[in-house]
Amino acid sequence: MKNRLKVLRAERDWTQAQLADALNVSRQTINAIEKGKFDPSLPLAFKAARLFKMPIEEIFQEDTEEQ
Amino acid sequence: MKNRLKVLRAERDWTQAQLADALNVSRQTINAIEKGKFDPSLPLAFKAARLFKMPIEEIFQEDTEEQ
DNA sequence: ACTTTATGTAAAATACACTTGACATTCATT
DNA sequence: AATGAATGTCAAGTGTATTTTACATAAAGT
User: Fold this and answer.
1) How does residue B63 score in pLDDT terms, banded at 50, 70 and 90?
2) Is B62 in Cβ contact with A57 (below 8 Å)?
3) Which sequence spans correspond to the domains of chain B?
4) Which domain of life is it from (chains A, B) (predicted)?
5) Chain-wide mean pLDDT for chain A?
6) Do B42 and A60 touch (CB under 8 A)?
7) Which nucleotide is nearest to B10 (CA to C1')?
8) d(Cα B50, Cα B48) in Å, to the nearest integer?
9) How many CA atoms lie within 13 A of B48 on its CB side?
10) Which CATH superfamily does the domain covering B2-53 fall into?
């Protein structure tokens, strides 16, 4: 799973901590998701979509090799 | 989190077992998700979106009381 | 050089997504 | 009424998302 969180943050000049706050998760969670350590839960993906006012698919994308 | 899996299945005349097969999860997982026992993972939501050829948001919806 | 702020990372604990196996219930068909 | 297929559910186990705490590194400003 790829994601555009880092870019979306940069466009808004937000830190990982600020995004974490806005999504009610820890900074480490944002960092881990950005670094591809794990995928967010579906509820968290929905929160991000609401925050950025865009579809989940514009924030998170399956990488092609995933079945 | 609400979802339209049961309806989407019905439109296609699929059983829970058939949907589970198509998504590579157990029948119990489909049943639990349909009954609202838990939310699917984001990768599973993506698989469902691919299968039904529609955005994640047309299959799964946040219920309004969630923060 | 020093300080501050942002980011990367690790370990241990908790919560939850998902599996397998099993059984009970419902419903349609015979 | 009996059978079979679909659905509901439970318990125990595994894997992973997320938290907290803590420390290390990087970058930027003073």
Assistant:
1) confident
2) no
3) 2-53
4) Bacteria
5) 95
6) yes
7) D6
8) 5
9) 28
10) lambda repressor-like DNA-binding domains (1.10.260.40)
Q: Tell me how close the Cα of B42 comes to any Cα of chain A, in angstroms.
A: 5
Tokens of B33: 């998700």
pLDDT, tens only, B13-59: 999 999 999 999 999 999 999 999 999 999 999 999 999 999 999 99
Contact A39/B at CB under 8 A? yes
Crossing angle of helices B5-12 and B27-34, in 10° steps, is 120
Alpha helices in chain B (DSSP H): 5-12, 16-23, 27-34, 42-52, 56-59
Average pLDDT of A26-40?
97
Tokens of A34: 């950005």
Q: Quickly list DSSP for A2-66.
A: EE-HHHHHHHHT--HHHHHHHHTS-HHHHHHHHTTSSPPBHHHHHHHHHHHTS-HHHHEE--TT-
Structure tokens at A8: 């979306």
Given a cut of 80, whether residue B5 has pLDDT beyond it is: yes
Protein CA A30 to sugar C1' C6 (Å): 13
